[in-house]
Amino acid sequence: MRAHASWLVAVALVTWSFWDRFDRDRRFGGTTAFVMAVGAAVLLFGSVLAHEFAHALEARFRGVSVGGITLFVFGGATEMRDEARRPIDEFATVAVGPFTSLTLGCAFGLLATVADHAGLTALAEVGGTLGWLNVGLAAFNLLPGAPLDGGRIVRAMAWKVTGDRDRAAAIAAGAGQVLGALLVAVGFFELFFVPGAFTDGLWLAVLGWFLGAAANAERAAARLRRSLGGRPLRHFASRAIDAVPADAPVDDAIDRWFHVFDREAFFVAEEPAGPLIGVVTLDDVRRVPPGNRDRVFVRDIMRPIESVPWLDAGTPASAVLDRLEGDGVAVVFEDGEPVGLVTWRDLVGHLRRDEELGRVPAGAGRAQ
Ligand SMILES: [Zn+2]
Fold it and tell me: Residue 22: how many CB atoms within 10 A of its CB?
């Protein structure tokens, strides 16, 4: 489990806004309001976590391996290592999240009612607040646009209907783009034409913009997946060209490797034909200031080979796309031996070349 830096900001903001809210209520004094605010923030944190754990547990139950849970400002995200095999698995894994939030919402509502009858006003207030927040969390997550849970439910259903996972992903991404645009439009309308709704409008517009951007990324990934077809990593991995020597200055590596072979990543070895000890990518090189490249050595910037993910050459490339995004690089192995490297840009470059050469698989979309 990881927490994105924005989550800490969110925790502070949420606690503060709870405190502000409870403090305005005449029934609660300063200290009581503060304790209530901290309690409510902890419970909200727990509720978001429960939602994500529900996704993770259901995924594991259905044989989809889970990478980890990241918490950030809008809530959480559960990273799946691979994809569901059947639409029903995807549907269940996704739907269980909002269902958990809804159940928690009802439970907190019940707690609030009981506490209210017992005369425990503070507990009733916190319970009521958490109840509505969880119902809100469920409702928000059910908005029908990828990458929200609702969008993934649309994807699972479209998958079931069309029998084509990639087409379904494109449909869900399209729904996300429409939803994002709609939220931005409503947000701007509130911003300019509804008196007193400035903050709400701004919030909606920002949210819509985020959703639209995420949906665009989903659409691009869906297209890419389609272009990859079912081809295994073996097809895309760079054949093992001689490794870069660890004691070469970065300048040398650029002149004699990156320029000569149009590749994003190379193996590193202590000596020619020696055992492979690391991987160096164009991104690693880029981070060294140009003036220092004659004094910094490949050894200093390489990624140790055991820190890079190893992927079986037979794995379909489309199944591991998420792990290569950004500056990701993976060692492709066959029979326990490394046979090449694969990066995001190499994959995309390969597809672009295929396209230029008229080798695009039938029905595939353009790679972006
Ligand atoms: Zn969810």
Answer: 24
